Amino acid sequence: MKAYRPTHVAIDLDALRHNYHVLRETMRPDWRMLAVVKADAYGHGAVPVARTLEEAGADLFGVAIVEEGLELRAAGITRPILMLGGPWPGQEPVVIEHDLHVAVFEIEQLQRLEHAARQAGKSCFCHLKIDSGMGRLGVRDEQLDEVLRFFLASEALQLVGIMTHFALADCPDHPLTAQQQAHFKRALAKVRDAGLIPEYIHSSNSAATFSDVNGGCNLVRPGIALYGGQPFEDRTLPLEPVMALRTEIAHLKQLPTGSGVSYGHRFIAQRPTLIAAIPVGYADGYNRLLSNCGTALVRGQKVAVAGTVCMDWTLLDVTDVANVQCGDRVTLLGCDGDECVLAEQWAEKVGTISYEVFCQISKRVPRHYQP
């Protein structure tokens, strides 16, 4: 007898390594890679992912918040870790103590970091974030001179990087991307003219890594591509899915024509129908918007979600699956034989992006790692 619910996420670390090497092969040999592992490595598990990628050769890691950086340090990750969003006020001493790199974009932030670094007798490693058109975080043109003067006057702050973020990196031919490139190059020239020579110059996320918008940079920041998500709509890159969401059939029920299924009876059987109940629902991250439109794989065959996705249960129409039985494996995300349910397909059905699909798989679903 099984002592656990069969619903789980399978993480294929070999696929992760494969995707890392695919990315490496697209890069110039002198470029370095910052692997983005924020948000628990997009739901894949930051520590096992970072350990795997550190062994594979990743040069830096990217996180969003201090807590994520500390988790990696506690796990023994020694490569540089960049906080892409910078620290909150009061977190500066922890950043300095654990040698975290930080994205910086305001004078007040620099003042707090310098004070903490002086107090600790250490340096703070800063990546100057330029707002080249994203309109989110970053130094604007009119602020750049003041920021550069601060760096030149400080002995505690080291400007080790300069960075920006493209709003439309997945559309490399869009005029905004060219405008942002030109803006970033002007800012970089101004930094160098001031006598500051940053080691890391970076602007590229997964989409930009595979396009021509990385001109002048020496570091790329892939995220979704490492996990097998396709940064472009044509889905032609040789990437492998790293995450699979799986469970087992818990119950089978034969229903006559005209029977309603699940909340609201949004599914009405149009023929004698065999319904499979599986122990996964929106509390596990299986989006309720997949009601009556989601797809799963049973015995290598695609089947449809029948009716409304519940908090803990989902129903499938398995009428056409030969010899189906309780205990059969069900794949909700990932591949079974030659058939796959990709994150991009799931995302399209619910009106979101593959990033959110990965991140929504909840913590109550255990992650099983395959070496």
Automatic annotation (TrEMBL):
Residues the record marks as active site: 38 (proton acceptor), 263 (proton acceptor)
Binding site for substrate: 136, 311
GO terms, biological process: D-alanine biosynthetic process
GO cellular component entries: cytosol
Catalytic activity: L-alanine = D-alanine
Gene3D superfamilies (alphabetical): Alanine racemase (3.20.20.10), Lyase, Ornithine Decarboxylase, Chain A, domain 1 (2.40.37.10)
Function statement: Catalyzes the interconversion of L-alanine and D-alanine. May also act on other amino acids.
Protein's name in the database: Alanine racemase
Organism: Desulfuromonas acetoxidans (strain DSM 684 / 11070)
